[in-house]
Specification:
single chain, alpha+beta, about 250 residues
């Protein structure tokens, strides 16, 4: 039995018809879907999972910096075994990333609720900025949030926002000045795979960066040549994933 979960994409798996399958019913209750489950149930890995195979130099450097900062602020205790100290440093170094991820998840949920027309007693100012950025870039559109899919090539996914007229948008949360942000190669692959998976292979695509602290919003549209290149590269990466994992 496949158990569907609406928001928390913990397992990054989908059925062939595009239904999220992030958890399964195990012997002791509901748990996250594993690769073994996916093989048994014929599930599809997500675009995010496929792209996760790529090394992210900027993110790796940031993680290393967090470990160094944690080591500086958490001196080794008297008689503390080295492995225990290292474990404590590693755990502390991940706290900042976890907190940022939780804030990002909360912002995504608010944006999803807004486009699903869920009542909000207090509307964060960045929602109006998102509306304006989308109108300025694409005009008035009928937007659909959290549209999921399964693709015959063997991957699935869920898009933050799409318009039936052929537009695909993904939101990224940042806690830095958005004037300095830019689209990465992995974003180009992600959007290219989304538009193929959603059946709109010529859709215009954009990343919308959102800073929930400053309410700053920045939309960057990805050019067509970048999307075509991203799709070609994604297909190769998908093949590597499928061969490596026997799925």
């Amino acid at each position: 039995m496949i158990v569907k979960e609406k928001i928390q994409e913990s397992g990054h798996w989908y059925t062939k018809d595009g239904a999220p399958a992030y958890t399964v019913e195990g012997k002791t209750g509901v748990r996250n879907t594993t690769l073994r489950d996916a093989r048994k149930l014929g599930l599809l890995p997500s675009v995010t999972t496929i792209n996760g195979m790529l090394s992210k130099a900027g993110l790796d450097t940031w993680k290393q910096q967090q470990v160094l900062l944690a080591a500086l602020t958490l001196p080794r205790l008297p008689d503390e075994p080295e492995q225990e100290w290292l474990a404590r440093v590693m755990q502390d170094s991940k706290a900042t990333g976890r907190e940022a991820a939780e804030r990002g998840t909360a912002i995504h949920a608010i944006i999803e609720g807004y486009f699903d027309q869920v009542y909000m007693p207090e509307k964060p100012p960045y929602l109006d900025s998102i509306d304006k950025a989308l109108r300025d870039a694409f005009g008035e559109q009928l937007w659909l949030s959290e549209k999921s899919f399964g693709h015959p090539l063997g991957f699935g996914g869920k898009c933050d926002l799409m318009a039936v007229n052929g537009f695909v948008v993904d939101f990224k949360t940042k806690e830095t000045d958005l004037d300095k942000v830019d689209v990465y190669f992995e974003h180009e692959m992600q959007l290219a795979a989304y538009r193929e998976g959603l059946g709109v292979p010529t859709a215009r695509c954009a990343i919308v960066f959102v800073n929930g602290k400053t309410n700053q919003v920045k939309l960057i549209e990805v050019q067509e040549d970048k999307l075509k290149n991203g799709w070609e590269c994604f297909q190769h990466l998908l093949s590597v994933y499928q061969i490596k994992n026997g799925i």
